[in-house]
């Protein structure tokens, strides 16, 4: 129901734009988030956006470089990633929350996409 896309291989300092498209149902009243999991590490929070798009929250490690946005009319969420670093390499997952307000914990999300690989070379 959530399809993430836009991952790929990019050099350090480059940019990528991830997209997450919902199908089968609407998530326009749900907060949405992005998480990532690097090899050998636990999945971690990256960014989240309020159902209305009125507020966002970011992990400290991506603040100022990543921007989350949403288009409820198109049932999509985006993650614009700029100034990418090798440590951003991970599988990125989009998720829909039980809640309307922004959430940073995995347990607050009940729908997950399949993930898209982002690899940043040095």
Structure description:
About 0% of the residues lie in helices and about 50% in strands. By secondary structure, the chain is an all-beta fold. The model has no long low-confidence stretch (mean pLDDT about 95).
Radius of gyration, CA atoms, in whole angstroms: 13 Å
Q: How is the main sheet built?
A: 7 strands, mixed
Low-pLDDT residue intervals, each spanning 5 or more residues: none
What general form does the structure show? globular
Question: Tally the helices: what do you get?
Answer: 0
Overall residue-averaged pLDDT value: 96
Lay out the secondary structure.
Elements: E1 2-5, E2 8-11, E3 16-22, E4 32-37, E5 44-49, E6 56-58, E7 66-71, E8 76-81, E9 90-97, E10 109-112, E11 116-121
Parallel strand pairs: 2-11
Antiparallel strand pairs: 1-3, 3-8, 4-5, 4-9, 5-6, 7-8, 9-10, 9-11
Brief overview:
This protein is mostly beta strands and 122 residues long.
Features:
four-stranded antiparallel sheet; single chain; 49% strand; 122 residues; globular; 11 strands; mainly beta
């Amino acid at each position: 129901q959530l399809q993430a896309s836009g991952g790929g291989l990019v050099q350090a300092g480059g940019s990528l734009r991830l997209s997450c498209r919902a199908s089968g149902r609407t998530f326009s009243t749900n907060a949405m988030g992005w998480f990532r999991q690097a090899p050998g590490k636990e999945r971690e929070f990256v960014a989240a956006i309020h159902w209305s798009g009125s507020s966002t929250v970011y992990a400290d490690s991506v603040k100022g470089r990543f921007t989350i946005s949403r288009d409820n009319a198109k049932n999509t969420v985006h993650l614009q990633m700029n100034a990418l670093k090798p440590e951003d390499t991970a599988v990125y997952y989009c998720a829909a929350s039980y809640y309307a307000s922004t959430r940073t914990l995995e347990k607050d999300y009940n729908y997950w996409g399949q993930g898209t690989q982002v690899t940043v070379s040095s």
